[in-house]
Design a protein that fits this description.
CATH class of the largest domain: Alpha Beta
Helix content: 40-55%
CATH topology of the largest domain: Dna Topoisomerase Vi A Subunit, Chain: A, domain 2
Largest sheet: 5 strands, mixed
Strand order of the largest sheet: 4-3-5-6-7
Strand content: 5-15%
Number of domains: 2
Radius of gyration: 20 Å
Distance between the termini: 64 Å
Shape: elongated
Amino acid sequence: MHNIPEIENLIKLISKLPGLGPKSAKRIILKMINNRKELMKPLAENISEVFKNVIRCKICGTLKSNLLPCDNCENIKKKFNKICVVENISDQWAIESSSVFQGYFHILGGTLSNNNLQKKEDLLIDSLIERVKRNNIEEVILATSATVEGQTTAFYIQDSLKKTNIKVSKLAQGLPVGGEIESLDDGTLISAFKNRQSLIDN
């Protein structure tokens, strides 16, 4: 295997995936090679399709097909009055799987930090404010992590929404200090949502 450049390159790439190392990558590659038609070919084709067609929505930040409208922010069949703001798509998936929240999501794609304030344009915060106004949103729930960066981001968004006359709340009990949303179990998420604290209530 070490004499085949294609396999060596594939091992390096797969090893970069979360939770995988060189040994796991080798096992995955051998599994694919031994199942070329049933596994390797459809996997390669599907990855190619995802690369070509799946993009980040420029309005809400979630993943969408460039062949279809964004189901999260443009589907007119939905008439939600809440937006949940999260840092990453993995946070959105974790909350969706718990079924604790019914509403729109706004995925920032990261956090602000004291040393990187110029990044705020990339976090779609202006887009969030426009969505609040356009969709008659009554509450924005800040579900950022309990890290310093997450709290800095939540405070900035809270300040940005002061003139919109809506309720702004944040997750409370059940969210440990330094905790990240995607790592929480369903029970903890449910507690955090039910006991959220109001920051701005107009």
